Hints:
This protein has 432 residues and is mainly alpha-helical. It is built from 18 helices and 6 strands.
Amino acid sequence: MTDATKTAQITIGGKTQDLPIMKGTIGPEVVDIAKLYGESKVFTFDPGFNSTASCKSAITYIDGDQGILLYRGYPIEQLATEGDFLESCYLLYYGELPTPVQRKKFVHDITHHTMIHEQMVLFFRGFRRDAHPMAVMVAMVGALSAFYHDSTDISDPRQREIASHRMIAKLPTIAAMTYKYHIGQPFVYPQNHLSYAENFLHMCFAVPCEEYKVNPILAKAMDRIFTLHADHEQNASTSTVRLAGSSGANPFACIAAGIACLWGPAHGGANEAALKMLEEIGTVDKIPAFIEKVKDKSSNVRLMGFGHRVYKNYDPRAKILQASAHEVFEALGKQDDPLLDVARELERIALSDPYFIDRKLYPNVDFYSGIILRALGFPTSMFTVLFALARTVGWISQWKEMIEDPSQRIGRPRQLYIGPTQRDYVPIGKRS
Length: 432
Ligand code: CMC
């Protein structure tokens, strides 16, 4: 890992220190500054982690300039079109694609752990019906910690695996129950004869008074959305899960922390914000005025679903979803959806405007996912919930990798202190 032929030098106050250079299998080299403070008594400053690798990882690789996303080396395009979500789950978690026997067992294990403890059903009743579904998700996933005590000893590999399987299996059930509670319909229990995506759509859209048949094209689109969102290396929510887990915290609580972070509009909340934006624009003729507003910095308006910290090219997930949107609209017999027209035209105009070209702003995964989810029947308030459901496997794979890394230590960033220097306490009677 460390390239013995190369070092970086840093000179502080006339003293030069050699810093080892580390090389991964692909991607930029990394300067190892772990001993910098010990020897030179300085910290490094990198708010937002623009230039900082927080860990070693063998799970997901992104080349933001080329627009490449690999899960364990496999291109996302191949996994999303030739495989399915549970296969990607297995790949992310165990490191290799499953053999037929491994796949059968994994699918069986996940399928047979989809029910949640019946006592948890009572929790839902404590929420207002108009609570944001992400608020309910944070609480319900955190509450799993209180129910599955036999899988919370993180030093035991088997308990870690059971907790992970439980989360992959139960998140769709919790997400669907959250939706049903939100709209005032009865909960629909999981059905073991359905696939992962079919079961989820069934739990969301079936009602007890009539039969609900899942459209296979829509189930495929749902499954693809799950695959595309399954992992994305050290993004904000994944880093949150790793940081929470680094203290040895309960795995269910760590995933609840990830869900809380994902909720923000600059992260997972962007798909909700992108669709709201398309609805607000409404028609193609309003696009030029909207683009002008985005370019005017004083307006504080951003083109949601555009731009990415890492991708300075087309997000490969957005390309797959653009094609998927057409399939879904065709299956639903809705070729003329005005929002799809607005999205396509907005993308065309933005991609030819110097403001976006100069800043390398391209559509990201959230630009088309909202349109598809809306066509599938989900309200915008559920969009980030679906992201959380799909990302759970990425979070737990990253959490497991961290726990199993022998060099793992509690995450403890330092700071550049800019507050008052030491001063003496002033009794209240002497303060003016
Ligand atoms: N619309 C208009 N201008 C933008 C946008 C945008 N969506 N994104 C970035 N810019 C401008 C920004 O104003 C800045 O301009 P200038 O250099 O003149 O000050 C420049 O581009 C660089 O922006 P930045 O904020 O420094 O970039 P960042 O890497 O910190 O932010 C981002 C990345 C995703 C937060 C940002 O692009 C954004 O807010 N996008 C809209 C929200 C969105 O779609 N988020 C989903 C991200 S993908 C899903 C996920 O992984 O969670």
